[in-house]
Amino acid sequence: MTIAFAEVLVASPGRNFVTLRITTSDGVTGLGDATVNGRELAVAAYLTEHVVPLLIGRDEQRVEDTWQYLYRGAYWRRGPITMAAIAAVDTALWDIKAKTAGLPLYQLLGGKSRTGCLAYGHASGKELPELFDSVRAHLAEGYRAIRIQTGIPGLDSVYGVASSANAARGAGESTRYDHEPARRGALPVEEQWDTRAYLRHAPAVFEAVRNEFGPELPLLHDAHHRLTPIQAAKLGRSLEPYDLFWLEDVTPAENQDALRLVRQHTTTPLAIGEVFNTIWDYRKLIENQLIDYVRSPITHAGGVTGLRRIMDYAAVYQIKSGVHGPTDVSPVGLAAALHLGIALHNFGIQEYMRHDRRTDEVFRPTYRFVDGLLIPGDEPGLGVDYDDEVAGAHPYEQAYLPVNRLLDGSLHDW
Ligand SMILES: [Mg+2]
Asked: Where in this chain does the entry annotate a coiled-coil region (predicted)?
């Protein structure tokens, strides 16, 4: 059996996805997620023009060798487009290997280490009453851990919170801002940011949430790459009384040493890495124990092979997984994360924003959300099946993540 052909499938069932489907000479198919939000067609072209032709005739069982062939063979290393393309091939080959073995993928990764993967959802509100309603709605859905994001006085729209325009449209709006920041159109939406206002406001929000919901509920928060190291240190310290599960992406972290300064000043656990794509991006962070959770998804970090390598390295330092799970990680990427997560000893938590109905109609995932835990399907492979006919009704539409400006008009990290 060899790889007979591979197809790059681009569709937009609610949002854009890039999916690789590899088919063997015996007709076994495997799926991989290659979605890079706002840059979808770059990775689609990378796969179509430069990767698919290399796969034809290869032994589909040689997952590690194919990973190294695409990583070392490109000469140009790392980067989100390359690593998403490698991730898609790697995930599709694991899917095929598990199907041909007649086993769910987690069995090939060592079998179950737990009954299910603890998931966290996204609660948000521009003001506290709306935020509290959102927390209650998540608790009613079964979530046992919740991310908290709110508006900031003086700012019209803020990362992770429904914009006032969206809120005004009310409950009929199918995609709230916090469920889908990428906006369709020729240009990105522009947002505003004021770090001093944020640093003043955030501790009061967490005090209010703890007063309303008590001390036990695990709470998470995302600073979304917007702080300098000393601002991040200040935020971490100011949130210590509220016992966060984690504080995420406090600095852009291209400068890994920045986390040293943050770490020296706070015991709030830190999560980093949703925009990282290789083990090299984590080297100092892991070796120097500057973080507590690895945020990379399978989709952007070289697949099951790439993320498992990072997590085995992290385990040496008692660092756990906290895999990125926004809606732009497709059900293929999420399913792969759940197979790895249920098998990993050092699993921590899984981000879970539910995909909308149209997305699930295309991918037909078999994972389940039960009492706050995500559980991968038990059929051979990943447990995801791409429906070409349904996908065909949802062609690609240009969409971008927002950009962000400070109040003086200068560009800032989004
Ligand atoms: Mg994040």
From this structure: none
